Amino acid sequence: MSDKTRFDRSDFMSVATLAIGGLIGFGLGIPAIRYIVGPAVAKNTAEEWIRLGSTAKVEIGTPTLFKATIHRQTGWIINEEELTVFVLTDNGRDYIALSNICTHLGCRVRWITEQGEFFCPCHNGIFDKNGKVVSGPPPKQLNRYEVKVENDQIFILGG
Asked: Given this structure, which CATH class describes domain 48-158?
């Protein structure tokens, strides 16, 4: 046998050490990478119902403003946001929840009781009490949330 084709004990130990080191590195590396990258690529598909408050606070025929603090996680970052929603009922059983963010430029709308409509002060956008555009530049109606009522508590589906 020539020296080039001979595989002696020191060559075997070198190959075996590299192979074992590679397996250990692979075994520890994959979970470490998954731990680091996982939250950034994970998709939150769980539905989150956000409690707004009691149904007793809602006057029939008048939109009532509710505020809720929610925590959203994006990757490793957790943000605390304040969500404000108008809740309306005409019969005390069926509720609708409307965003108070104007669909034009994201300004906050407010309920004007005397006119019976929502008003956006940024560009004079006007919405009826169901959130439909009456006049002004808003391109579409106010966004709605899915609503459920349990034990006289109002919940909206947040996403």
From this structure: mainly beta
